[in-house]
Protein backbone atom coordinates (compact mmCIF):
# COMPACT_ATOMS: atom_id res chain seq x y z
CA UNK A 1 0.00 0.00 0.00
CA UNK A 2 1.22 3.47 -0.88
CA UNK A 3 0.21 6.70 0.85
CA UNK A 4 -0.50 10.25 -0.29
CA UNK A 5 -0.90 13.57 1.48
CA UNK A 6 -4.49 14.76 1.77
CA UNK A 7 -4.68 18.27 0.37
CA UNK A 8 -2.31 20.91 1.65
CA UNK A 9 -1.92 19.18 5.01
CA UNK A 10 0.47 16.86 6.77
CA UNK A 11 -2.08 14.04 6.91
CA UNK A 12 -1.16 10.95 4.92
CA UNK A 13 -3.85 8.48 3.88
CA UNK A 14 -3.73 5.15 2.08
CA UNK A 15 -4.29 5.67 -1.63
CA UNK A 16 -7.00 3.03 -1.41
CA UNK A 17 -9.72 3.98 1.10
CA UNK A 18 -12.23 1.42 2.28
CA UNK A 19 -15.80 2.70 2.20
CA UNK A 20 -18.91 0.98 3.59
CA UNK A 21 -21.60 2.84 1.70
CA UNK A 22 -24.15 0.53 0.03
CA UNK A 23 -23.22 -2.71 1.74
CA UNK A 24 -22.59 -2.54 5.46
CA UNK A 25 -25.66 -2.50 7.66
CA UNK A 26 -27.87 -2.93 4.62
CA UNK A 27 -26.94 -5.28 1.77
CA UNK A 28 -24.67 -7.83 3.45
CA UNK A 29 -24.70 -9.48 6.84
CA UNK A 30 -22.59 -7.93 9.57
CA UNK A 31 -20.20 -10.88 9.71
CA UNK A 32 -19.42 -10.49 6.01
CA UNK A 33 -19.03 -6.72 6.38
CA UNK A 34 -16.59 -7.16 9.26
CA UNK A 35 -14.65 -9.75 7.24
CA UNK A 36 -14.25 -7.16 4.46
CA UNK A 37 -12.91 -4.56 6.89
CA UNK A 38 -10.45 -7.10 8.29
CA UNK A 39 -9.34 -7.89 4.73
CA UNK A 40 -8.77 -4.18 4.15
CA UNK A 41 -6.62 -3.96 7.26
CA UNK A 42 -4.66 -7.04 6.22
CA UNK A 43 -4.05 -5.45 2.81
CA UNK A 44 -2.53 -2.33 4.37
CA UNK A 45 -5.51 0.01 4.10
CA UNK A 46 -5.51 2.48 6.99
CA UNK A 47 -8.20 4.89 5.77
CA UNK A 48 -11.89 4.13 6.28
CA UNK A 49 -14.80 6.25 5.05
CA UNK A 50 -18.45 6.12 6.07
CA UNK A 51 -21.40 8.46 6.71
CA UNK A 52 -24.18 8.75 9.24
CA UNK A 53 -26.83 8.33 6.54
CA UNK A 54 -25.53 4.98 5.29
CA UNK A 55 -28.11 2.39 6.33
CA UNK A 56 -29.52 5.15 8.57
CA UNK A 57 -26.50 5.09 10.94
CA UNK A 58 -26.08 1.27 10.96
CA UNK A 59 -23.02 1.41 8.68
CA UNK A 60 -21.10 3.52 11.21
CA UNK A 61 -21.93 1.00 13.93
CA UNK A 62 -20.69 -1.89 11.81
CA UNK A 63 -17.46 -0.07 10.98
CA UNK A 64 -16.88 0.84 14.61
CA UNK A 65 -17.30 -2.78 15.65
CA UNK A 66 -15.00 -4.01 12.89
CA UNK A 67 -12.23 -1.61 13.93
CA UNK A 68 -12.39 -2.45 17.63
CA UNK A 69 -9.01 -3.48 18.98
CA UNK A 70 -7.06 -1.63 16.29
CA UNK A 71 -4.55 1.06 17.29
CA UNK A 72 -6.55 4.26 16.77
CA UNK A 73 -3.46 6.34 15.95
CA UNK A 74 -2.72 4.03 13.00
CA UNK A 75 -6.10 4.65 11.36
CA UNK A 76 -7.72 7.53 9.49
CA UNK A 77 -11.49 7.45 10.05
CA UNK A 78 -13.75 9.66 7.93
CA UNK A 79 -17.48 10.27 8.16
CA UNK A 80 -20.02 12.75 6.79
CA UNK A 81 -23.05 14.85 7.69
CA UNK A 82 -25.96 16.31 5.70
CA UNK A 83 -28.57 13.74 4.72
CA UNK A 84 -31.54 12.79 6.96
CA UNK A 85 -30.91 10.40 9.84
CA UNK A 86 -33.02 8.98 12.62
CA UNK A 87 -36.75 9.59 12.23
CA UNK A 88 -36.08 12.33 9.68
CA UNK A 89 -37.45 15.20 11.70
CA UNK A 90 -37.28 18.81 10.54
CA UNK A 91 -33.83 19.34 12.06
CA UNK A 92 -32.49 15.86 11.30
CA UNK A 93 -30.92 16.95 8.03
CA UNK A 94 -28.76 19.66 6.48
CA UNK A 95 -25.71 21.58 7.65
CA UNK A 96 -27.17 23.73 10.41
CA UNK A 97 -25.15 24.17 13.60
CA UNK A 98 -27.74 22.08 15.44
CA UNK A 99 -27.63 19.14 13.03
CA UNK A 100 -23.83 19.18 12.72
CA UNK A 101 -23.23 19.13 16.47
CA UNK A 102 -25.82 16.43 17.12
CA UNK A 103 -24.57 14.37 14.19
CA UNK A 104 -20.90 14.35 15.17
CA UNK A 105 -21.79 13.19 18.68
CA UNK A 106 -23.83 10.32 17.29
CA UNK A 107 -21.12 9.38 14.79
CA UNK A 108 -18.39 9.32 17.43
CA UNK A 109 -20.52 7.12 19.66
CA UNK A 110 -21.29 4.65 16.88
CA UNK A 111 -17.70 4.56 15.63
CA UNK A 112 -16.34 4.08 19.14
CA UNK A 113 -13.81 6.90 18.89
CA UNK A 114 -13.17 10.29 20.47
CA UNK A 115 -12.48 12.02 17.16
CA UNK A 116 -12.65 11.59 13.41
CA UNK A 117 -9.73 12.47 11.21
CA UNK A 118 -11.94 14.03 8.54
CA UNK A 119 -15.51 15.31 8.86
CA UNK A 120 -17.19 15.98 5.53
CA UNK A 121 -20.18 18.02 4.43
CA UNK A 122 -21.93 15.30 2.43
CA UNK A 123 -23.50 17.85 0.09
CA UNK A 124 -23.81 21.64 -0.11
CA UNK A 125 -26.73 23.02 1.90
CA UNK A 126 -28.46 25.85 0.05
CA UNK A 127 -30.80 26.46 2.99
CA UNK A 128 -28.17 27.17 5.66
CA UNK A 129 -25.75 30.13 5.48
CA UNK A 130 -22.29 28.82 4.61
CA UNK A 131 -20.89 30.94 7.44
CA UNK A 132 -22.99 29.00 9.96
CA UNK A 133 -21.83 25.67 8.57
CA UNK A 134 -18.13 26.54 8.51
CA UNK A 135 -18.27 28.07 12.01
CA UNK A 136 -19.83 24.86 13.32
CA UNK A 137 -17.07 22.80 11.67
CA UNK A 138 -14.42 25.14 13.11
CA UNK A 139 -15.90 24.71 16.57
CA UNK A 140 -15.63 20.92 16.26
CA UNK A 141 -11.98 21.24 15.24
CA UNK A 142 -11.26 23.40 18.31
CA UNK A 143 -13.09 20.89 20.52
CA UNK A 144 -10.85 18.10 19.20
CA UNK A 145 -13.74 16.07 17.80
CA UNK A 146 -12.61 16.68 14.21
CA UNK A 147 -9.05 17.06 12.92
CA UNK A 148 -9.71 18.19 9.35
CA UNK A 149 -12.70 19.33 7.31
CA UNK A 150 -13.80 18.08 3.91
CA UNK A 151 -16.80 18.19 1.60
CA UNK A 152 -18.45 15.96 -1.00
CA UNK A 153 -19.77 16.82 -4.45
CA UNK A 154 -19.19 20.58 -4.14
CA UNK A 155 -18.75 22.73 -7.24
CA UNK A 156 -15.62 24.75 -7.90
CA UNK A 157 -17.40 27.94 -6.79
CA UNK A 158 -18.59 26.30 -3.57
CA UNK A 159 -15.11 24.98 -2.85
CA UNK A 160 -13.63 28.45 -3.21
CA UNK A 161 -16.21 29.99 -0.88
CA UNK A 162 -15.87 27.25 1.73
CA UNK A 163 -12.08 27.31 1.60
CA UNK A 164 -11.99 31.08 2.09
CA UNK A 165 -14.26 30.90 5.14
CA UNK A 166 -12.32 27.99 6.63
CA UNK A 167 -9.10 29.94 6.25
CA UNK A 168 -10.62 32.95 8.00
CA UNK A 169 -11.67 30.67 10.86
CA UNK A 170 -8.22 29.10 11.14
CA UNK A 171 -9.20 25.56 10.03
CA UNK A 172 -8.24 23.47 7.03
CA UNK A 173 -10.64 22.46 4.27
CA UNK A 174 -8.50 19.83 2.58
CA UNK A 175 -10.69 17.44 0.61
CA UNK A 176 -13.62 16.91 -1.71
CA UNK A 177 -15.30 13.55 -2.29
CA UNK A 178 -16.75 13.38 -5.82
CA UNK A 179 -17.77 10.56 -8.11
CA UNK A 180 -14.96 9.88 -10.59
CA UNK A 181 -14.22 7.10 -13.04
CA UNK A 182 -13.38 6.48 -16.69
CA UNK A 183 -17.10 6.90 -17.39
CA UNK A 184 -17.78 9.87 -15.07
CA UNK A 185 -15.26 12.68 -15.54
CA UNK A 186 -17.32 15.74 -14.66
CA UNK A 187 -14.78 17.06 -12.11
CA UNK A 188 -11.92 17.41 -14.59
CA UNK A 189 -12.70 20.77 -16.18
CA UNK A 190 -13.62 22.90 -13.13
CA UNK A 191 -13.43 21.09 -9.77
CA UNK A 192 -9.91 19.70 -10.19
CA UNK A 193 -8.29 22.98 -11.33
CA UNK A 194 -9.95 24.88 -8.46
CA UNK A 195 -8.86 22.20 -6.00
CA UNK A 196 -5.27 22.32 -7.21
CA UNK A 197 -5.33 26.08 -6.72
CA UNK A 198 -6.72 25.79 -3.18
CA UNK A 199 -4.70 22.81 -1.91
CA UNK A 200 -7.69 20.43 -1.85
CA UNK A 201 -7.44 16.74 -2.77
CA UNK A 202 -10.09 14.46 -4.22
CA UNK A 203 -11.14 11.26 -2.44
CA UNK A 204 -13.07 9.70 -5.28
CA UNK A 205 -16.00 7.34 -5.00
CA UNK A 206 -17.18 4.75 -7.48
CA UNK A 207 -13.90 4.38 -9.42
CA UNK A 208 -15.30 1.19 -10.97
CA UNK A 209 -18.62 2.91 -11.81
CA UNK A 210 -20.64 0.80 -9.37
CA UNK A 211 -19.16 -2.34 -10.88
CA UNK A 212 -19.71 -1.50 -14.55
CA UNK A 213 -15.96 -1.24 -15.21
CA UNK A 214 -15.32 -4.74 -13.87
CA UNK A 215 -16.77 -6.08 -17.12
CA UNK A 216 -19.24 -8.38 -15.40
CA UNK A 217 -22.23 -6.67 -17.02
CA UNK A 218 -22.42 -7.69 -20.68
CA UNK A 219 -24.48 -6.18 -23.50
CA UNK A 220 -27.66 -8.07 -24.26
CA UNK A 221 -27.43 -10.19 -21.09
CA UNK A 222 -29.25 -10.06 -17.78
CA UNK A 223 -27.18 -8.74 -14.83
CA UNK A 224 -25.45 -11.47 -12.81
CA UNK A 225 -27.46 -12.76 -9.86
CA UNK A 226 -26.53 -11.00 -6.63
CA UNK A 227 -24.89 -8.06 -8.41
CA UNK A 228 -25.59 -4.43 -7.58
CA UNK A 229 -27.82 -4.11 -10.63
CA UNK A 230 -30.21 -6.63 -9.05
CA UNK A 231 -30.28 -4.98 -5.63
CA UNK A 232 -33.63 -3.43 -4.69
CA UNK A 233 -32.28 -1.51 -1.66
CA UNK A 234 -30.74 1.31 -3.66
CA UNK A 235 -27.96 -0.30 -5.66
CA UNK A 236 -29.99 -0.89 -8.83
CA UNK A 237 -31.05 2.76 -9.01
CA UNK A 238 -27.46 3.97 -8.73
CA UNK A 239 -26.24 1.84 -11.62
CA UNK A 240 -29.19 2.05 -14.01
CA UNK A 241 -27.87 4.93 -16.17
CA UNK A 242 -24.80 2.87 -17.12
CA UNK A 243 -26.75 -0.25 -18.09
CA UNK A 244 -27.13 0.28 -21.82
CA UNK A 245 -25.64 -1.80 -24.62
CA UNK A 246 -23.52 1.04 -26.02
CA UNK A 247 -21.73 1.61 -22.71
CA UNK A 248 -21.41 -2.08 -21.90
CA UNK A 249 -19.98 -2.81 -25.35
CA UNK A 250 -17.37 -0.07 -24.93
CA UNK A 251 -16.41 -1.36 -21.49
CA UNK A 252 -15.72 -4.81 -22.95
CA UNK A 253 -13.02 -3.17 -25.09
CA UNK A 254 -11.11 -2.45 -21.87
CA UNK A 255 -10.54 -6.17 -21.25
CA UNK A 256 -7.52 -6.57 -23.57
CA UNK A 257 -6.07 -3.28 -22.32
CA UNK A 258 -6.22 -4.56 -18.75
CA UNK A 259 -4.78 -7.93 -19.77
CA UNK A 260 -1.85 -6.29 -21.56
CA UNK A 261 -1.14 -4.28 -18.40
CA UNK A 262 -1.26 -7.40 -16.25
CA UNK A 263 -4.34 -6.15 -14.41
CA UNK A 264 -7.95 -7.16 -13.95
CA UNK A 265 -10.50 -4.72 -15.30
CA UNK A 266 -11.33 -3.57 -11.76
CA UNK A 267 -7.66 -2.95 -11.01
CA UNK A 268 -7.31 -0.99 -14.24
CA UNK A 269 -10.27 1.21 -13.29
CA UNK A 270 -8.93 1.95 -9.81
CA UNK A 271 -5.40 2.55 -11.11
CA UNK A 272 -6.80 4.93 -13.74
CA UNK A 273 -8.28 7.37 -11.21
CA UNK A 274 -5.04 7.28 -9.21
CA UNK A 275 -3.12 8.58 -12.23
CA UNK A 276 -4.76 11.97 -11.58
CA UNK A 277 -2.33 13.86 -9.33
CA UNK A 278 -5.19 15.64 -7.58
CA UNK A 279 -6.66 12.33 -6.42
CA UNK A 280 -5.36 11.38 -2.97
CA UNK A 281 -7.30 8.16 -2.67
CA UNK A 282 -9.79 5.92 -4.44
CA UNK A 283 -12.73 4.62 -2.42
CA UNK A 284 -13.52 0.95 -2.77
CA UNK A 285 -16.36 -1.04 -1.26
CA UNK A 286 -16.88 -4.75 -1.07
CA UNK A 287 -19.37 -7.45 -0.21
CA UNK A 288 -16.68 -10.16 -0.17
CA UNK A 289 -13.10 -10.01 1.20
CA UNK A 290 -11.57 -11.18 -2.08
CA UNK A 291 -12.89 -8.02 -3.77
CA UNK A 292 -10.79 -5.96 -1.37
CA UNK A 293 -7.71 -8.02 -2.09
CA UNK A 294 -8.17 -7.60 -5.83
CA UNK A 295 -8.71 -3.85 -5.80
CA UNK A 296 -5.83 -3.09 -3.43
CA UNK A 297 -3.44 -4.41 -6.08
CA UNK A 298 -4.09 -1.17 -8.00
CA UNK A 299 -2.06 0.77 -5.43
CA UNK A 300 1.26 1.92 -6.84
CA UNK A 301 0.41 0.98 -10.44
CA UNK A 302 1.72 3.35 -13.11
CA UNK A 303 -0.18 3.38 -16.41
CA UNK A 304 1.87 4.41 -19.44
CA UNK A 305 0.64 7.16 -21.74
CA UNK A 306 -0.24 4.68 -24.48
CA UNK A 307 -2.47 2.74 -22.04
CA UNK A 308 -4.29 5.93 -21.09
CA UNK A 309 -4.75 6.75 -24.77
CA UNK A 310 -6.19 3.29 -25.49
CA UNK A 311 -8.63 3.73 -22.60
CA UNK A 312 -9.79 7.09 -23.95
CA UNK A 313 -10.26 5.57 -27.40
CA UNK A 314 -12.32 2.69 -25.98
CA UNK A 315 -14.61 4.87 -23.89
CA UNK A 316 -14.71 7.78 -26.33
CA UNK A 317 -17.66 10.14 -26.13
CA UNK A 318 -19.45 7.87 -23.65
CA UNK A 319 -17.54 9.46 -20.77
CA UNK A 320 -19.73 12.04 -19.04
CA UNK A 321 -17.83 15.35 -18.73
CA UNK A 322 -20.53 17.96 -18.09
CA UNK A 323 -19.38 19.97 -15.01
CA UNK A 324 -22.95 21.02 -14.25
CA UNK A 325 -23.62 17.47 -13.07
CA UNK A 326 -21.58 18.23 -9.95
CA UNK A 327 -24.44 19.42 -7.79
CA UNK A 328 -26.28 19.06 -4.52
CA UNK A 329 -30.04 18.72 -3.98
CA UNK A 330 -31.68 22.15 -4.34
CA UNK A 331 -33.53 21.52 -1.09
CA UNK A 332 -32.67 19.37 1.88
CA UNK A 333 -33.63 15.78 1.23
CA UNK A 334 -36.29 14.82 3.77
TrEMBL record:
The keyword Chaperone does not apply. GO terms for molecular function: oxidoreductase activity. The keyword Repeat does not apply. Residues 15-314 form the NADP-dependent oxidoreductase domain. It comes from the Bacteria. InterPro entries: AKR, K_chnl_volt-dep_bsu_KCNAB-rel, NAD(P)_OxRdtase_dom_sf, NADP_OxRdtase_dom. Keywords: NADP, Oxidoreductase. Coiled coil: none annotated. One of its GO terms (cellular component) is cytosol. Belongs to the shaker potassium channel beta subunit family. This is Aldo/keto reductase.
